[in-house]
Amino acid sequence: MKKVHNFNAGPCVLPDEAIEAGIAALKDFKGTGMSVIEVSHRSKEWEGIMEECESLWKELLHIPDGYKVLFLGGGASMQFLMVPYNLLNKKAAYLETGVWAKKAIKEAKGFGEVEVVASSADTVYNYIPKNYTIPTDADYFHITTNNTIYGTEIKHDIESPITLVADMSSDIMSRPIDVSKYGIIYGGAQKNVGPAGVAFAIVREDILGKVSHYIPTMMDYSVHIKDDSMFNTPPVFSIYIMVQTLRWLKKNGGVEAIHKVNLRKAELLYNEIDRNRLFVGTAAKEDRSIMNVCFVMKEGYEDHEEAFLNYAKSHGMVGIKGHRSVGGFRASIYNACPIESIEALVKCMQDFEKQILG
After folding, report:
1. Residue 167 known to be catalytic
2. Do 90 and 112 meet the contact criterion of CB atoms below 8 Å apart?
């Protein structure tokens, strides 16, 4: 099989052993004589996978008692709707740091008043707003911790006087977090913890059951908690690969260990961007994401963008074209992206610089 340096923003690079385990399970799941995509989700073999999945989440993130981890369909975009359905009575507060935060705000406005406490839209979301006030009369405060399109990240746990909700789609499991500071943490799996097709939601149970409006059954966190994420048939294959990915993470030292690796990878690439005469980073330095590294050609060299993309592709780089809304380049360096890939990209940037500038 041809191997490339995969910098796709999602679906993303996964551990080889997770993919190999998935191939094996497609042929025969746990000696059942059935594929993992054929086995009943009510079987004891599958129930064991669901139990292990939640157990790994709780172990790797040190999730305290009182929380339930859910595995649901619909991606993070469905969570944009589920959060206000379950929490918004009158008013919610949101921090607007990018396209996905903006989409979450749009959904919440259908349920009540939404106060955008701060926004970085004025400079195309290239920084994380600071020095804002969280309204204490809101039902919850929603943040998007990592912004894949713009390469910014909230790297610490915010102190919130009200229930804190976080979309952590693209930085979950990349760094330690204090789960006890959050009411809900949610996201799509297809960045750090598995393939597309399943979303996770870490929910503190005592914040539920307080809204006055009707919650459709499929939108009700309490329903999914009661049935251990199997109110309806779960996305079995995506969850199976998630378990394999989390096993890999645990074997390699867990979140604390991978965070150190992620910092080294990000430092290596950002150092080259700052040194290179052709490239410049787009995110404010203090807010640079360690998951999504965004950069462009320096002023005067914009005409070389397509040439660099072609040069990088010819050297095995995949997925470094920036999001269509902003252009430029983006290297998504999630947990399973090996440091060798970052080293290869750095060399590619250096060689292209020499080719253009000598």
Report:
1. yes
2. yes
